[in-house]
Amino acid sequence: MTGQPQGAHLVGSVNYDDAETTIRTAAEVLGGHLKRIPDGEVGPRFHWILFQPDVLAEADGIERVGDHPIPVKMLDARPVRVADGVDPATIEFPPLGYAAAAIESYALFRRLREEGAVPAGVRFQVSLPTPLAVVGAFFPAEQRAAIEPVYRAAMYRELDEILAAIPHDELAIQWDNAVEFQLIEQVEYRGKPAVEPWWGDDLWSGLIARSAEQADLVPDAVEVGFHLCYGDVAEKHFVEPADAANLVRFANGLFEASGRPITWLHLPVPIERDDEAYYAPLAGLALPDGTELYLGLIHREDGAAGAAGRIETALRYAPVFGVATECGIGRAPAGTTEGILTTHAEVATAW
Fold first, then answer.
1. Based on the structure, what is the number of domains in the chain?
2. Sign of the CA dihedral 287, 203, 215, 322?
3. How many beta carbons lie within 10 A of that of residue 334, not counting itself?
């Protein structure tokens, strides 16, 4: 390895049963490597957005698709739809659960910081899915254009509640973009082709405009970052990216369209990619001054040794970056989490 990255980033989910274990362990193992710590997305959030259909189905006018539940631990993975004859604009979604979880976990984070378990200056990180992600994953294609504004308003209410409850100089918001890359790569959720241009006249501009809006909703005193994702079901991407070109194109468009600075950007790196072809597009990343770049090149399967090979190649095209896993580790095998966290510290320096 010809150089060493600086700093580490936890994408969001961590495979512990409770937020206190997540926060304590992350602070103990990674310490000065982290600028922000999430709560691990514990409980029903363990599988990213899979708990949202259970929440959305509580709204009048929303029904489940299929007669039999699809159990995933405590969740029912069946999608949802707007019932026949119901105007989507009249639907009132209940609280989505993100604000309540964030407020509860922040109180714990603050207590642990006061006890000295969390270093001073580290922020509390809240990861939110883009509204497009939930709509694209769980509603039928022909209903997405009409229901997206309704769900988006509900998610923005969650954000407003978080911003009202947590001091801005202690908060970091991460927007998770995954379904966006399913659309870009023409791989639709649940294996169905994207047949309805519900994102607008142009796919790229429609997706980037949405993310820029979400960045701009976050006040300047609050950090905002983006996790660009190719999925993580059974520790596999929905499609393996040919290289980092689409990630770079999206990021550059976001930097240009956003009205506020982006604090950090996270990009995934597949485990088998230590070749120059994958990383070469990073040379064209127009990373603004002050924006942190994290490459998700840590994998539990090959630890520090495997990460070192990917780091060596990445440094040729991105001379300054921190490290991360390619997605959250909330569904990593039991007993592997601390080893994954330790790998971050082994391959990167502290801030």
1. 1
2. negative
3. 8
Residue 195 DSSP code: -
CB atoms within 10 A of CB 289: 5
> At 236, is the pLDDT very low, low, confident or very high (cuts 50, 70, 90)?
low
Q: Percent helix, strand, coil in the chain (nearest 5)?
A: 40, 15, 40
User: Would the pLDDT of 255 be above 70?
Assistant: yes
Q: How many residues does the chain have?
A: 351
Indicate whether 218 belongs to any domain: yes
CATH number, residue 210: 3.20.20.210
Orientation angle between helical segments 19-30 and 98-114, nearest 10 degrees: 50
For the chain, helix (H) and strand (E) counts, in that order, are 11, 11
Q: Under a CB-based contact definition with an 8 Å cutoff, are residues 264 and 288 in contact?
A: no
| Six-digit token string for 6 | 């600086």
Cβ–Cβ under 8 Å, residues 226 and 251: yes
pTM of the predicted model, to two decimals?
0.95
Give CA–CA dist 150/32, Å, rounded.
41
| Residue 188 pLDDT grade (very low, low, confident, very high; cuts 50, 70, 90) | low
